[in-house]
Fold GGDEF domain-containing protein.
Amino acid sequence: MAFMNPPSASLGNPCLDEIVARRDLSVHFQPIVSVTTGHILAYEALSRGPRDSPYANPIPMFRAARERGLLAALERGCRERAIESWVNTGLGELLFLNASPEVLIDPEDLGGQTLALLHQHGLSPERIVLEITEQSPGIDSDLVAEAARHYQSMGFSIALDDLGDGYAGLRLWSQLNPDYVKLDRHFVSRLDENPVKRRFVRSIIDIAHSMDSRVIAEGVEREGELDTLLELGADYCQGWLFARPDAAPHRVREPLEARLASLAAHHRPATGATEIRRLSVPLPALDAGLCVAEASERFSRLPHANALAVVDGRSRPIGILGRQQLMALLGKRFGFDLHGRQPVTRVMRTQALCVEAHEPLERVSRKVTGREEASRDEDFIITDGGRYLGMGHVINLLQLFTEQQVQMARQANPLTQLPGNRPIRLALEHYQRQARGFVACYLDLDNFKPFNDRFGYALGDRVILALANLVRSELGREDFLGHLGGDDFILLLNDGKDLHRRLAGIQRRFSVESHALVPADARAEDGFHAKDRYDQWRFFPLVRLSIIALRLGAEARVDSFGDLWSHFKPAAKRAANGRVVVALDHRSAAAGE
């Protein structure tokens, strides 16, 4: 059939055979970044055909190559072009190269041609990550896993692409330990707006971390997606939010680094958050060029070291070597003779858990305890901006986590277990430091004191707990709820959109839930009799939630939120809906108007 034939060169477009033969390919590079550290981990090489051909889009080009038996030749040409272009950029990050499963298991290659190409250009396999693309029908996943392990033994790292896109990728993941897994863009798109996707992504990240794999989220285009990915524990991101693929990435490096620095500053933990930096033990790292015998000598000089990091020439960790692992290797008969001269990179474990110095304690604790049971007690590597800082011991992590839990319990409200006065103050300081506006709400219960006096503190506590639980259930991803004490709560909202609707919804829910708690006669009368502040009996309406919401612009700064809330409190109590929303600019906020 005519439409099945490849494009003809006579029609002005080069055919696929000519493109492969002439290596008529262009390569663009897209960065893979760590937002928490503000550094660039790697670049992925993306190959394209001639601009004036149907193969300018890589998807039809590789599909046609697979159908015509040209896939191996095409990928070889893409790999050659990518390495040549990469060397010309002068950049030193990791390079991700795509590899289809059928080419990966090709017995004519199995790393030999790629190693020769790297040697020709002065690159080591430790700087290359082979990214296994989607599996083709009929490919034996056992063979793919075996080939991947062979490449890993030569020093290459392995990444699985489009994880979650299909059954084959999950099956292959279960058969090998990839250094990186790339989260399919389907799960990333609008992740912040989809609770189901969030549950999937959290599970994938937890499984990856339990296998000491690092997670790269593809297709990140919006800051909302980025915020959610960081909250869920993704290690790296890739997408248009940071940079589009570029043929000359070194020329756009400066604006990319400025963008990353801004994002990293914005996503640093709030003041008072416990950073993992406190756990760093400054043990010397092993250079990648050391041999096993030299590594053994280092361990003999460090009797208390359980494991040491292996770093490259830029102090970036590439693996970890454990004392027991080394002793098991050298303790065998002829162990020193057989292994002593081997480079340490041949015997190290590449699936080392690396965490950043300023990561919150809770996130690191999840990564450590989520590992497989056999490796749960192993030391982990702590980095600062991607560079080696020191080692972390699990026992110290558990001790610090316990201390933090005790401290949090002391600062939490004993009834609701919500953050108390000091955490609320720190949260307000954090929100004010953000370069965007937010909403600071004071929640108060009208007629609560006479209600307590009339029906007792036990029922009053049940009403307060009902309010705490329902507001907690309404919190968004970046919202904060604290309990000052009694019937006073603080609610901080990052996003002011639909503010009246959100607050009205909370008030309606509280009205329904609190009224269900009061005796039937009080519900029937829509109120109750109790003594007022002058010790006189009178009728009070049922408890109502009133809210004072201060809407602060990006430039607004408030010295005393308490004074402002007190200023508007009478107006909220007089309002028919029990709600006052006040927009504050930098002038009115400072003046307390």
